[in-house]
UniProtKB/TrEMBL annotation:
SUPFAM superfamilies linked to this entry: NAD kinase/diacylglycerol kinase-like
CC per GO annotation: plasma membrane
GO terms under biological process: phospholipid biosynthetic process
Cofactor(s) of this protein: Mg(2+)
Family from the record: Belongs to the diacylglycerol/lipid kinase family.
PANTHER family in alphabetical order: LIPID KINASE YEGS, SPHINGOSINE KINASE
Gene Ontology MF: a single term: kinase activity
DAGKc domain sequence ranges: 12-144
Pfam families to which the protein is assigned, alphabetical: DAGK_cat, YegS_C
Protein name as catalogued: Diacylglycerol kinase family enzyme
Keywords assigned by UniProt, alphabetized: ATP-binding, Kinase, Lipid biosynthesis, Lipid metabolism, Nucleotide-binding, Phospholipid biosynthesis, Phospholipid metabolism, Transferase
Length: 334
């Protein structure tokens, strides 16, 4: 669904934009020139600028932007900055424009937004259209029974993928981008073991599961063009869950074949989809869908949100908040 903000006339104040940027990811001086010029060309007021800090990765300054009347907030940084801004914008009706400047740029890739050209991203912020997206929400329970609530835009994960993120070198990410996660996987192999848990979808009775990774998705695509959850859509009001359960000596090969070949290649053509329909389903990757998911692990496990580590969790409840976030996207071509 697309939303359009009313166009101001000569009797109204110019619309206000705010920029929340991560100074570790963005060349601030160059970026400010681009944004200020785009705002002026679009007849917007001079943008309000906020820098993230270690103490405030984006939620607090985004709340300030809302109070100061921002109609759109440009989130400039990596996936963590985008997630923090989105968390603060939840239910506000204020649009978020994504200015990707990180390693994965997961939301931008899933929405087919530009990832390599800041000018194009800024142009969408002032001249694009608005789209309502779902937000994934999680309540994490720590080993000391502390409860935390967070939002996510793309994926939340428990098990091997969270260990991989924890073990990935920040310096290597800056040098080679998302390929650094390959090193993170190698570092996680010594910790490789199944996660044992009980889970329930939409209030159904608990079921037991032993999997190396459980991922909850609002979107389906990973870096490198891998499509983990081919049916996931960011505005369908449900969450998708994928459990990686490698069986036997070829288990991981079956998983790779499912994600990279079947989901990433065959599904793109009618003939390929016909081949999938005629093929035996790969049970090493198991899918579920629902709007509310509860997981309780036998022992605390590493947890991640949108590619950022979030420590150990002994239980997680995930649910969807439909249409809770407005995102500025490209206008369709004529």
């Amino acid at each position: 669904m697309a939303y359009r903000l009313p166009v101001p006339n000569s009797r109204t104040a110019k619309p206000q934009a705010a920029v929340v940027y991560n100074p570790m990811k963005v060349d601030a001086d160059k970026f400010k020139k681009i944004v200020n010029a785009a705002a002026k060309a679009a007849n917007w007021a001079s943008p309000i600028w906020f820098s993230t800090t270690e103490d405030d990765p984006g939620q607090g300054v985004t709340a300030s932007a809302i109070r100061r009347g921002a109609r759109v907030v440009l989130a400039a940084g990596g996936d963590g900055t985008v997630r923090a801004v989105a968390e603060a914008l939840r239910g506000s009706g204020v649009a978020m424009a994504v200015i990707p400047a990180g390693t994965g740029n997961l939301l931008a890739r899933n929405l087919d937004l530009p990832t390599g050209n800041i000018r194009d991203s800024v142009d969408i912020a002032f001249n694009g259209q608005d789209r309502a997206l779902d937000l994934g929400m999680v309540e994490i329970v720590r080993d000391n029974d502390d409860h935390e609530e967070h939002a996510f835009l793309v994926m939340a994960g428990l098990g091997l993928d969270a260990k991989m993120i924890k073990n990935t070198s920040t310096k290597l990410k800056k040098a080679v981008g998302w390929l650094a996660y390959v090193d993170g996987i190698a570092r996680s192999i010594p910790e490789l073991r199944p996660v044992r848990l009980h889970y329930s979808v939409d209030g159904a009775p608990n079921r037991s599961l032993s999997a190396h990774t459980v991922i909850i998705g609002n979107c389906g695509a990973l870096p490198g063009g891998l499509l983990l959850m081919p049916e996931a859509k960011p505005d369908d009001g449900i969450l998708d869950m994928a459990a990686l359960v490698p069986r036997g000596r070829f288990g991981w090969l079956n998983i790779w074949n499912k994600i990279a070949w079947e989901n990433g290649v065959l599904r793109k053509s009618a003939i390929g989809r016909r081949i999938i329909d005629l093929s035996k389903d790969v049970r090493d990757v198991r899918y579920e869908t629902g709007s509310d998911l509860n997981m309780i692990v036998d022992s605390p496990e590493e947890f991640q949100l949108d590619g950022d580590e979030f420590g150990l969790a002994k239980s997680v409840r995930a649910w969807v908040d439909p249409g809770a976030l407005i995102v500025r996207v490209s206008k369709p071509r004529s």
